[in-house]
Write a structure and sequence with these properties.
With 264 residues, the protein is α/β, with parallel strands linked by helices. The protein is built from eight helices and seven strands.
């Protein structure tokens, strides 16, 4: 997976998966633009990549605002002249609250970041790729886009929507040389899962971690670098005729019905 001469644009670049993917692209020769609403975390990613010799630029943006999305696209083009790989990754978890009690404003916020933000990224990056005649997009969905779960109405709804957008966008642009796919991680060792564990059981978040891990045949959470590896594959020529689909990264949990594999 050689990305020499290519430009990778990553939203949610300050988080664990975004940072690991930024580093993965940079170490394989890509010039990288990381976007995040959290300036400190976004700059931290840029510093990590730069320390490893990567060519990287940070842009602060609000993915829910069309003008801000246009600004990060323009910043990428101003810096590097093109966008070859777009990791449409920004997302938030919201709160763990039963549907009947969920706050409407928070519901709107989760949908705005996780679903509208992905749409706006597609809306403003795809024209750049179409003009180039090439490009790949990977959207971050989730196993929550395949199944339901208690207390996470907007998150689950938004991730189902991301898979829908992935299928439609891929159909729109596949004849024109652009590929659009999605990744569906299960629990990953990131800040988001620490937040969800604490919300599930404030008195024993580690117990939640152990319980979730036990439902995975591999017996553990996925690492950010393992998600990044799949993103890099879907962004590379190795996946040349793969489009309109998703790859699940959850330690075999969905394939086993949530039952751990027998161990000796």
């Amino acid at each position: 997976m050689d990305f020499t001469g290519k430009v990778a644009l990553i939203t949610g670049g300050g988080g664990g998966i975004g940072r690991a993917t930024a580093l993965g692209f940079a170490l394989r020769g890509a010039k990288v633009v990381v976007v995040d609403h959290d300036e400190a975390q976004g700059k931290a990613t840029a510093d990590v990549v730069a320390q490893r010799g990567g060519d990287i630029k940070f842009v602060r943006a609000d993915v829910t605002k069309s003008a801000s999305v246009q600004d990060y696209v323009k910043a990428a083009l101003d810096a590097y002249g093109r966008i070859d790989c777009f990791f449409n990754n920004a997302g938030i978890e919201g709160k763990v609250v039963p549907t009947q009690d969920y706050d409407e404003d928070l519901f709107d916020q989760v949908i705005a970041v996780n679903l509208k933000g992905v749409f706006l990224g597609l809306r403003h990056v795809l024209p750049v790729m179409l003009k180039q005649g090439s490009g790949t997009v990977v959207n971050t969905a989730s196993v929550a886009g395949l199944f339901g779960g208690p207390g996470m109405a907007p998150y689950v709804a938004s991730k189902h929507g991301v898979l829908g957008l992935t299928k439609v966008a891929s159909s729109d642009v596949a004849p024109l040389g652009i590929r659009v796919n999605a990744v569906c991680p299960g629990p990953v060792e990131t800040r988001m899962m620490r937040s969800l564990e604490a919300q599930r059981n404030p008195g024993d978040p580690e117990g939640v971690h152990r319980a979730y891990s036990a439902t995975m045949p591999t017996g553990r959470y996925t690492l950010p670098e393992e998600v990044a590896g799949v993103v890099l594959y879907l962004s590379s020529d190795l996946s040349g005729n793969v489009t309109g689909t998703h790859i699940v990264i959850d330690g075999g949990r969905s394939g086993s019905g949530g039952q751990p594999a027998a161990r000796r």
